[in-house]
Amino acid sequence: MTASTFLLGLFAAAIVIIPASVAGTAEQLISSAAEQRQGRVIDVQEGRGPESVVWVVQLSDLHFSVHNPERALDFINIIGPVLRMINPSLVLITGDLTDGKSKDLLTMKQDEIEWLEYKSAMEDVVKRSGLDKNIFYDLRGNHDSFGVPVVGGSFDFFSNYSINGQLKRTGRVNSVTLETAKYKHLFVGLDTTMPIGLRGPTNLFGHPTDELLAELDSQLSQWDSQPGKPVIKIPFGHFPLSFSALSQSQRSLEDIFLKHSVSAYLCGHLHTRFGKNLKRHHQVSDNIRTLQKLVQLNMHHLPSDSSINCSFGATQPNEFWEWEMGDWRRSRAMRIVAIDRGHVSYIDLDFKVGLRKTIVMPTFPLDSRFMLTSSSRRKYECQHMVPSSFETVRALVFSASPILSVVVRIYDSKPGTFDMVMETEMTKISGESSRAEFYAAPWNYRAFEDPSPDRYWLQIEAIDAMQRSTVSEMRAFSIDGITAQTSWTWKEFYVMGFQWSELYYPILWSIVSLILSTLLIPRALLIFSRKQYTYRYFIAGKGFVRGIPWVLLELCRLPVVWSGILGYVIYLIVCPWFLGQVFVHNEKKVYMTYMGWAVESFNQQGKHEYIGVPDVMVLVLPHLVFVVLPTIFVTGGFVAERSIYREHVLSLSGKKEDDDCSQKIRTSKWYGQRWIRKVLLVEQLTIWECMVISLFSCLSLS
Description:
Low-confidence stretches: 1-31
Number of helices: 19
Radius of gyration: 31 Å
Mean pLDDT: 82
Strand content: 15-25%
Strand order of the largest sheet: 4-3-2-11-12
């Protein structure tokens, strides 16, 4: 008998002998425990909507704050009515529910008032929307774990005030399945925040454990042994994969997602300040090298050249999309994700301008920018596996007023202008009891086959009873599974294209090697080389490259200064950087090195373990790059400028032989008025400013 079976037996026995009110609580606990193991199943048929399509809502990065009450107020006034109009099957809130920051941004810790505000706001939204509270799933973000020493402790307000906490969804992984007549849609939420929640700024990455990955693997495979309906798998979490660390056994979330061929991973965390195109295509390929796994230059992987197998039970292509969404904090963003006969699409909505009376969401054909390359091509070539999937243009229409007409228009951009080539009235195909109005229009899809994925463009217009016209965003589509290539901006590439957790140590040791080289190589030249790198040598060569060794050699001629800088670099490598109070209301301070925070292990009494890697990179790398390295060159510059000024004084006094070099030194205003020294002072002030910023980051931990 397993421990779980034994506990369930104890609960069942208790129900017989305890009062009815307590027995009801025990039944809820048993139901909650079973739901966490197997996942909840929701039948979305039952006269509630079109059987071929389901849709859910995603919200992220709410950042409710005592210093910005308008965030919660707008959330109540906007999201409540919008959810009533959309009537989704699920509402997914992917982290950073509260802000956890002081007004001056120096202190980062949990504030119970913010959590009470979140609980109250969610209760109001549930009431206004008319939705069942059980379809809401919220997750921790890094802000929700600032300074929380242990999950379930007195400072873990998420466990008390979140919807997941109130409904006893205590696991790190929770799943729910939306079932229709022909499909199962499996949604799996994962909490990868630190088990020991550090305070900011060194709490930035997701930290999946081997145990979490095993549970995620199990939840994603829960329907694999049951033949019949195809399963569409969509995990959701807070952290993008570029900001997710590896587990203890060097496994990643990407490994699990690719293994199960999930359709998309929904996440948040980055907000819209880095861009609105924070999407990334992941794919298994033998041609992808190790470096390409660490740095992905383009949003899309190259399409696979493997042949398509249309037999039933054939292996699905190992690929998925990662879709980061905007934040509620500043952007007032919300996302609707729809799955129409296996085709997954989404639209992002911006409520900064207020409520929307009507929302038009095309569900087929798909946006050619965000199709799964291999999967879309397989669905096109294997249409016998998805009957009638390609025969109609389809769209969901959500409206506060009755809809009078819906029209689809298709444009051809090949001539260089958008020429309309199709305009058709769409027909409502869902019943009166539907949760939304679902429209379709027949078309000859083969007429739009084209090797260019952005030749044909789709737009759908809906007119309501108030004669208000609402149009969908015009977007390119591709019938035959060819994906349109979209490039990142440099900021989008910076946050989505790098696997930062795996690049931290290579970048760190590269910078340290560069710093040591700038100190040790000139010293070796000074000791062993016969060539004299002086200012005259620099002037004669007229080259910047020759000037750098001269500046660094001048620094080496001051052994006290040179030794001090070298000693500081060695100290940063082998000693603690500083002490900090990383937990809320815990007077004990711990120290940080480049390897992370050394905290006492909860498993091995008296021993320490390092946590917060690679999160500490936000302090370590900027300090080395913007403080230590520039200090070496600026200090060398001060020493070199002193030598130049000495030459200038000697040339004016006539004690120096009057050659071309002396004439340049004597006549130059740069030397006489010491402009070089003034420029170096400005640079030194900039370095001090960087040090102050770093200091304030450290003060947030004290």
